[in-house]
Design a protein that fits this description.
Blueprint lengths: L3 E3 L9 H11 L6 E9 L2 E10 L3 E9 L11 E8 L6 E6 H20 L6 E5 L3 H13 L4 E5 L3 H5 L9 H7 L2 E4 L18 E4 L12 H6 L1 E4 L10 H9 L7 E3 L17 E4 L4 H16 L4
Parallel strand pairs: 1-6, 7-8, 7-9, 9-10, 10-13, 11-12, 11-13
Antiparallel strand pairs: 2-3, 3-4, 4-5, 5-6
């Protein structure tokens, strides 16, 4: 079996709505088996993520995070995605780590927004101004072509580098937004529930450990809550662990994940507030990597 090597040049064959359709199709298959391994050497991390979906295939995504590389003029994150055939278990593709991560992370929240955000949403606030926020501009624009973006960051210079209008007052910017996209490394809530307005949708992307949060308990209590996967969020991420522990919400307040009926994972009214927590599990890497590989193989035909 030929092993494809797929790099960043594959991106020109991808489109965001094609990816969301692939994610929906992946969630109609049996639930994935997933496992993460983290190894540490002082400030450095070795990440090994694996997923297997019967009927789709299997994946091992390996990456190293070495913060000291910033002072060496080298990338702080390096890795590779290994994609294996579902039937034979043979290696079929080696795919660029950053390509899969970009499309998986943004596509995950795009699928949530496509179901939960009001169709007339126009004002999108990006809380955080890193690579993920930049990718979300592309993703959101694919389904909200008339969207107007504003960005806020704790470091104004970083926000200005996005080339978008910059908000100085986070509370005012939140109150004025239709969609609020949080993609930060915050360990304490930035968004307060008192600021939220009827009809808003929040995509929470940044928090991925038990010690990280982007919104407070009151925000979680006011909203209808959705996740990409209960298995990778409820007991793993501070955004859910803390408000459940405080009694602000219960596990039953998580209404649906992507494995549930899409009719359940949907907006009920124009006035309700919705929150979608992006956990980004390895099963989503597998669905995304498979979509990328299929698009790459079709490029000549």
């Amino acid at each position: 079996m030929t092993v494809e090597t797929i790099g960043q040049d594959a991106e020109r064959f991808l489109d965001w709505q094609g990816l969301t359709r692939a994610l929906e199709a992946g969630h109609r298959l049996p639930k994935a088996e997933i496992q993460d391994i983290f190894l540490y050497r002082r400030d450095d991390t070795l990440l090994d993520r694996a997923a297997w979906i019967d009927g789709l295939g299997s994946l091992v995504k390996i990456g190293t995070i070495v913060p000291g590389n910033a002072n060496r003029g080298k990338p702080t994150i390096n890795g590779i995605v290994n994609l294996f055939d579902d039937v034979t278990g043979e290696l079929t593709a080696l795919i660029d780590f950053h390509l899969v991560t970009k499309w998986k992370t943004a596509g995950d929240s795009l699928l949530s927004a496509s179901r939960l955000a009001r169709k007339d949403s126009r004002n999108i606030l990006l809380v955080g101004a890193g690579v993920v926020a930049q990718n979300m501009v592309q993703a959101y624009s694919s389904i909200f072509p008339e969207a107007r973006f504003t960005t806020w960051s704790r470091t104004r210079k970083t926000a200005e580098a996005m080339g978008l209008p910059v908000a100085d007052d986070l509370e005012a910017a939140v109150r004025a937004a239709d969609i609020i996209c949080c993609a930060t490394m915050a360990k304490a809530p930035l968004i307060k529930g008192d600021w939220l307005q009827p009809g808003q949708h929040l995509d929470l992307i940044g928090a991925y450990t038990p010690a990280m949060r982007e919104v407070d308990d009151h925000a979680m209590a006011r909203a209808r809550i959705f996740v990409d996967s209960r298995a990778t969020t409820i007991h793993h991420i501070g955004e859910l662990i803390d408000p459940i522990a405080s009694g602000a919400i219960g596990e039953a307040d998580v209404i649906a994940d992507f494995y549930d009926d899409p009719a359940l994972y949907s907006r009920r009214s124009e006035d309700e507030i919705t929150i979608a927590k992006n956990g980004g599990g390895a099963h989503l890497d597998l669905m995304t990597a498979t979509y990328i590989a299929e698009c790459w193989r079709r490029r000549k035909g």
